Amino acid sequence: MLKRAPFEVSEIDLKETVGEVIGFVSALEGRGVILKYAPASTTLRVKGDPIQLQQVVLNLIMNAIDAVPNRKARSGK
Questions:
Q1: Among residues of the chain, what percentage have pLDDT more than 90?
Q2: Cα–Cα distances in Å, from 66 out to 13, 38, 39, 50, 70?
Q3: Domain boundaries of the chain, sorted by first residue
């Protein structure tokens, strides 16, 4: 989903980066997925590549979705 770009380390707000990914996957709610996000009350400064950090967070979310059994299949049994 995210474009491959050269690695760039910079100081970023991790809370903002995660929030951007949450915006990317908000369309999943139409597929029966409810994503709850409780951002930290403070700024979370880290050094890293923003695109790669977004990819990590996106992969974690997608893996979690894949790990949850399909509710429709469960109720049909």
A1: 31
A2: 28, 21, 23, 24, 9
A3: 11-75
